Fold each of these.
Amino acid sequence: MNTVAVRPRVSVIMPAYNVGKKIDGVLNSLMENLTSITEDYEIIIVDDGSQTPPASNAITLNDKVRMVKHPVNMGKGAAVKTGANHARGEYAIIMDADGDIGSENLEQYVAALKSYDVIVGSKRHPESVYRAPLTRKLLSLAFNRMVKLLAGIRLGDTQTGLKAFRTRHLKTIMNAIVVKRYAWDVEALLVANLLKMKVAEAPVRIEQGSRFSLKAVLNMLVEILGITYRYRVLRWYQKNLGRKNPEYRPILKI
């Protein structure tokens, strides 16, 4: 007698800040790609205190889409934590709401979560499509080198806004981190390493414009230094996670 495999429930967590109507096209494309993977999904939009809230018919008319609101802007890390607390799926995908990142590779991410705990979208994966001005590419590369040096995370990219987790692991990670804004990804991946989770990099399509905030760059630098201080000097993560001298797993590409 043949049995039909039960497909996993997927939660998509979408932090959103001042995206307005831009989210409409993002949601339509996302739902089309999710439907090809499973009908059993939910999309959790976390409006992080926007002056221009997310606006789409999908938010009001589709019962698979729900929105959680922060009364004030708290930062992307805080928005991801809120989304993780509301996620009910077996797998959780974190995806930016601004339209820079395509969702066409999600089936590969979900499939990979059968073997890995964390899947990281990487601009530097050989199958990725990465279009951005040279200044942004150079800044991204310099930031990645700094993360490798200070935090010891041997990934080609930590900051692309597409990542996937087994949801129970995401909840564990987000309960352990303290960064609420820019560098939450670095702290989350550091915790994943300390907990010896299996991490893989996957391709992504990303198109970024020329604008970026110098203030945001400086804030990220301050947060990275704080993470490094807690990790290397205070050994705060090791003490709080009950781990000492963790052995890092190799970072793989899928």
Amino acid sequence: MKRKNLDPEITNTIETLGTVPRYVLQHNAISRSAQKFSAEAMKVAAMAMSLVPKDLSSRTASFTFADFCKALGIQRGGESFRVFKSAIEECMDKHIGIESVNEKTKKKTWDYYQWFSTARIEEETGVVTMTFSNELAATILELNEVYSKINLKDFGALQSKHALRLFEIGISYMSMQGKGGNARDEWYFERSIPDLRLMFGIPDKKYKMTKDFRKNVIEEPINEINEAKIGVEIKATNIKDERDKRSIGSIRFDCKEIRRPEETTKGKGRKKKNDNSQEKLLSPEKEKYLEERIERAIEAYPEKYKELQEKELRKKRYLSGTNEIMLQAIRMIVGKMLLEMYGDPEQEAVNDPHKELSACPV
């Protein structure tokens, strides 16, 4: 399939950004991908991704070892630079698999891409320059409506690769808060053990006993996440196989958003003001409000929604099957179209407490 060529020549740096990045806008397809990266390599990739623009008009990022340590809250030292250098080499050596599901057969397809096409390390200055591969970047660009905002220091607070993977997968489902029977600040996702093995890059010979797999891949990483107090708590529950009640069919991960210790002032429940991040993004409250407006528009104009959805699906026909991520992206795209065409069915703009949302590009 033909891919759009993106411009790798423009190099995005801390200087052009104007500040050390605090967040990475990570596409949910990346969070839910199949990969065998170490924790250090995942952190390096997240740092590079935090510097490239959301529209991927350029895909080269340059930063220093000191920038990396500051953004992720990591202590600097001679040994840490050696690990940093090895992580960059690993990023060039490993691939990432993007999942898609055929709606008719329910069979999964994993398309594998190289993370980065080039990388350069200047040991004297500590400057690293990395360019995302065109194939992966173009795939992400086609699905850029569905992403999660992840605090880089949350990545830096976690040490094990399994904890990092569970954390980013959990965050990728955060948009399900308050939907489908979930409480306002709760959501969940469910995966089979074979799925988790593939996503985490764990061979069948390792942790062959289910209890060993659960301890090392599920329980200990969840404890690490919960003890880190990074805004989310996770609890895992075994779901029995419907065909064999003695076996585990899947594992359900119940997630809950929690207030971070630094988000409240002493003796009061008021949140601290956040520093400006690298991008002007909607707050979680406003993101939820926008989603509610979209849902109202879809419900009010179902025939127009179906018409626009079919047109959008035809544009996306080059993707492998119709997967969950693509359908979510199309729903957001078409929902914004409806808001632009008809407005919010239930609220007039003059009474809209979030009226700046009306100016958001759709």
